[in-house]
Amino acid sequence: MDNNKLELTPEVCDNILQMLKSNDKTNLTVVQETIRHINVTENLPYLLIMFKESTVENRKTVFLSIIKEQLNASCISITLSDNPKDLTYNKLYQEVKSHQNIKPEAMEYFLDKFAASLGSVMISWGFSFMEDFDLKLIPKK
Q1: For 7-123, where are the E strands, in sequence order?
Q2: Going residue by residue through the chain (141 aa), what tens digit of pLDDT does each one get?
Q3: Contact between residue 57 and residue 63 where contact means Cβ atoms under 8 Å apart
Q4: Does residue 138 sit within a domain?
């Protein structure tokens, strides 16, 4: 890891997500500075989850420009849009899996969020027994 870059963890990402869901300007400034100081290549799954789960307003006014700036600086080419149809886990996963040097714990975090979303969808489709289970996505070897 680059010594000048901040290290993201699932806990840090969860805290940033809470800040991204607020309207507090101080929180948003902290998020902007945090994103500017992370290793985008290693933390791409975290960044995409943050982008997907932030409020629409924060995605447009705060996050979109910062993440694009960071991706460009890291020579990562991803087409991001604030259109919800472009923010499916499938599309984000396709972006993530095409990049190397991603931290395993960042990928696990992404897959855990994806699995939680799948579980919620199954419950909404009437599979109420899923309320008693947590899904786990395990990559094939």
Answers
A1: none
A2: 455 678 899 999 999 889 888 888 898 888 888 888 888 888 889 988 888 888 778 777 776 777 677 666 665 666 666 666 667 888 888 888 887 788 899 999 999 999 999 999 999 999 999 999 998 988 887
A3: no
A4: no
Q: Per-residue b/e over 85-97, b at no fewer than 16 CB within 10 Å?
A: eebebebbbebbe
Two structure tokens written together for 29 = 């400034």
Contact present, 16 and 50 (Cβ < 8 Å) = yes
Assess if residue 4 is contained within a domain. no
Q: How far is CA 98 from the centre of its chain?
A: 15
- Position 93: which residue type? Y
Domain housing 98: 10-132
Domain annotation covers residue 141: no
